[in-house]
Design goal:
With 233 residues, the chain is an alpha/beta fold. It has 10 helices and 10 strands. It has helices at 40-48, 70-76, 93-100, 106-119, 121-125, 136-148, 166-181, 193-199, 217-222, 224-231, and strands spanning 2-11, 14-24, 29-34, 55-60, 63-64, 78-81, 154-158, 185-190, 202-207, 210-216. A hairpin with a 2-residue loop joins strand 9 and strand 10 (210-216). Helix 3 (93-100) runs parallel beside helix 6. The longest helix has 16 residues, at 166-181. It is globular and about 45 Å long. Bound molecules: adenosine-5'-triphosphate (ATP). Adenosine-5'-triphosphate (ATP) binds at residues 11, 16, 34, 36-42, 191.
Length: 233
């Protein structure tokens, strides 16, 4: 569904991604784990089209989207829920969801909103409330639900558990598994490597702008180097 070959990117003259190769197949949860500053957020920003790629290719559903802008990628089914939630805190839950559906007509938006409420029941209860009043976990659910409103076939998630207490982080990651059940393919970037690998099919370990290891998530969890460097066990 999504394939990345030799992707390089940086900030000004400083290159921070030094040739990333990565593949996400339809129906998978794939995670990219790595330390703070490894380049995970930059990679997701390149994939969503908000940060320029200097070298390499990105293909999505068979099409070369390397130079496509973010709106083109969203229209083709590639959506991102960025790090730090970035919801509109002064708008209601329902208004935030409507903004995620800007591509579509009203009939479809109502059906999609119903689906979002089925997936995240707490958002139904809070639909008329100002998003800034939600808890951290609820705001994260809203950010993911808003990305879903564009009906993506592939969702890019940047650190959805960041800053959440363990029980809320678990709920958010459970929600990611629910999305997989709905047929959404997921690329999940996480510093919380253990939690991410526990729900993923496959994983990539990123170290200073390069992929250091990759494989089935269960193999990575069992790998002594990964356990020592990223899982603290
Ligand atoms: P984190 O989990 O902290 O977000 P990350 O793995 O996502 O880390 P990036 O945020 O992609 O890593 O950062 C990769 C490198 O790029 C780091 O060295 C960082 O300092 C640098 N970097 C990130 N954003 C910018 C920027 N706007 N300008 C210059 N350098 C940046």
């Amino acid at each position: 569904m999504l394939s990345v070959e030799g992707l390089r990117a940086g900030y000004g003259r400083i290159e921070v991604l030094h040739g990333i190769d990565l593949e996400v197949r339809s129906g998978e949860i794939v995670t990219v784990v790595g330390a703070n500053g490894a380049g995970k957020t930059t990679l997701l920003r390149c994939l969503s089209g908000v940060h320029p790629t200097t070298h390499g290719r990105v293909h999505f559903r068979g099409e070369d989207v390397t130079r496509a802008g973010p709106h083109v990628r969203v229209a083709r089914g590639l959506a991102q829920s960025p790090e730090g939630r970035q919801i509109f805190t002064n708008l209601t839950v329902e208004e935030n969801l409507r903004l995620g559906a800007y591509l579509f007509s009203d009939d479809r938006v109502a059906a999609d909103m119903e689906e979002a409420f089925r997936t995240f029941p707490v958002l139904r209860e809070k639909r008329a409330q100002i998003a800034g009043g939600l808890s951290g976990g609820q705001q994260q659910m809203l950010a993911i639900a808003r990305a879903l409103m564009s009906r993506p076939s592939c969702l890019l998630l940047d650190e959805p558990s960041l800053g959440l207490a363990p029980i809320l982080a678990r709920q958010v990651l459970d929600a990611v598994v629910t999305l997989k059940g709905l047929g959404v393919t997921i690329l999940l970037v996480e510093q919380n490597a253990f939690a991410a690998l526990s729900i993923a099919d496959r994983g990539y370990v990123m170290e200073t702008g390069r992929i250091a290891m990759s494989g089935p998530a269960s193999d990575l969890v069992a790998d002594a180097r990964v356990r020592e460097a990223y899982l603290g066990i």
